[in-house]
Specification:
Layout (H helix, E strand, L loop, with lengths): L3 E10 L2 E11 L4 E5 L6 H8 L7 E6 L2 E2 L5 H6 L2 E3 L12 H11 L8 H7 L15 H13 L5 E5 L7 H18 L2 E5 L3 H7 L2 E6 L2 E6 L1 H4 L3 H8 L32
Parallel strand pairs: 3-8, 3-9, 6-7, 7-8
Antiparallel strand pairs: 1-2, 1-4, 4-5, 9-10
Bound molecules: adenosine-5'-diphosphate (ADP) and magnesium ion.
């Protein structure tokens, strides 16, 4: 049994089908990478898996049980936590309290892990600082910490590295590795820089127009004709993709082929 089973999931908005019959499995202990052009349906897929949207058809099974149609907090308590593309923190609270809120929202046992999480993320020294005016990397670490405090079995990270410098990408990548190896958390991560994702993932999914274009071994991605077409063929924005989701990545290059250093 896979930890997550996504079966023929569809999610439409009126006549527009944002996620169109997507199926894949994620095994426990994996880092599973998701990519695809802007507007391909990646964030809507995350929202549908994590209970923010109910799938119009298809099924989502987590740890052997259907969670389709359950509320986000129930899914979170079951051990599936998602971060958002646009970071959301409680600005009036301290960094540590932001993690405690995560613990409260999430699974049993999260609160005990807060000090340990702060240590791992190198946030101990600033734990009592208010979570405002933080630089992007620190903000993303606090978001990650709050998500980890829910004690997830499966963590969905929506473009956490958007806007990072090369060294920040490396540092965050190392954190994801530790989360997996030391904490045993399975991770699904969206990232648009293919080289970064290939290096990090055990398995990859490429979405295009709401459908699976590729699913399999990351090393095969570069040689897959349709993926090459989408990433190098000049496709930048898809129909319907607009400023709504552009907060952190909408205007960044999508056709990156080894352009890891170009993060703004
Ligand atoms: P991405 O792959 O860039 O994360 P999204 O999953 O955010 O793309 O969006 C997929 C498509 O669904 C886009 O065309 C987007 O405009 C559309 N979409 C997303 N959310 C909504 C919504 N609440 N109502 C209508 N259309 C939406
Ligand atoms: Mg998105």
């Amino acid at each position: 049994m896979s930890l997550l089973e996504v079966r023929d999931v569809k999610k439409r908005f009126g006549g527009f089908v944002a996620v169109n019959g997507v199926s894949f499995d994620v095994e426990e202990g994996m880092v599973f990478g998701v990519a695809g052009p802007n507007g391909a349906g990646k964030s809507v897929l995350f929202a549908t898996i994590s209970g923010f949207y109910r799938p119009d058809s298809g099924d989502v099974r987590f740890a052997g049980r259907s969670i389709a149609g359950e509320r986000p907090h129930a899914i979170c308590r079951a051990g599936l936590t998602r971060t958002f593309q646009t970071p959301q923190l409680f600005a009036s609270m301290s960094i540590a309290d932001n993690l405690r809120v995560g613990a409260e929202f999430g699974n049993v046992g999260g609160e005990d892990r807060v000090p340990e999480i702060l240590r791992m993320l190198d946030l101990e020294a600033i734990a009592d600082r208010q979570a405002t005016n933080l630089d992007l990397f620190t903000t993303k670490k606090v978001v990650l910490g709050a998500a980890l405090a829910t004690a997830p079995k499966l963590l969905l990270l929506d473009e956490p590295m958007a806007g990072f410098s090369h060294s920040e990408i490396e540092a965050y990548r190392a954190l994801v590795e530790r989360i997996r190896s030391e904490w045993g958390v399975t991770v699904i991560i969206i990232e648009h820089l293919l080289d970064v994702l290939i290096g990090l993932s055990d398995r990859m999914l490429i979405l295009n127009y709401g459908q699976v274009l590729f699913e399999g071994d990351p090393e095969e991605v570069r040689h897959h004709p349709e993926v090459v077409e989408v990433y190098l063929g000049g496709a930048t924005q898809q129909d319907g993709a607009d400023g709504r989701a552009a907060g952190s990545s909408g205007d960044r290059a999508q056709g990156s082929s080894g352009g890891e250093g170009e993060s703004a």
